[in-house]
Design a protein that fits this description.
This protein is mainly alpha-helical. The chain is about 50% helix and about 0% strand. The protein contains 6 helices and no strands.
């Protein structure tokens, strides 16, 4: 009778973040939080981005509608050809803050003087205080 591979044998051939925890410590993403370079927003204006990010961050039934279908109602003054770059920017912000939060929780980044709050404010100066809080809250929830 042939041996049916178990979960460890199957996982042996996997690579990438889905392969499970690494035996090596993950490198720190940021060496000095205060030396971050501010991100420049060149796709749309700050006010347009604020409205777009607000819609992007929506939860509930509305979130099931693709963002490209929701944005025309909230940012009618933005050319739809910019939507892909705008969505990529929203994803980048969210993913980056989730990684930073994970670094803080795992001790790879020292949590002194609310370092995550400082990092978000320095890196993404165009985010309103409300959006800075919402993205940090989401990161904390995602890394529970």
């Amino acid at each position: 009778m042939a041996k049916v591979p178990g979960s460890w044998e199957k996982a042996e051939h996997l690579t990438g973040p889905w392969a499970g925890p690494s035996t090596q410590p993950a490198p720190r993403i940021v060496d000095d939080p205060d030396s971050l370079t501010p991100d420049e927003l060149s796709i749309v204006s700050t006010e347009q981005f604020d409205r777009a990010f607000e819609e992007y961050r929506q939860w509930g039934p509305r979130a099931s509608v693709p963002i490209e279908e929701r944005w025309p109602a909230v940012i009618p003054d933005v050319d739809p050809s910019k939507y892909a770059a705008l969505e990529a920017k929203c994803h980048e912000i969210t993913r980056t803050v989730v990684r930073w939060d994970d670094d803080v929780k795992r001790g790879r980044l020292r949590n002194e003087d609310d370092v995550l709050k400082r990092m978000v404010a320095i890196r993404y100066p165009y985010l309103t205080p409300r959006h800075q809080i919402s993205v940090r809250t989401y990161a904390s929830f995602a890394n529970r």
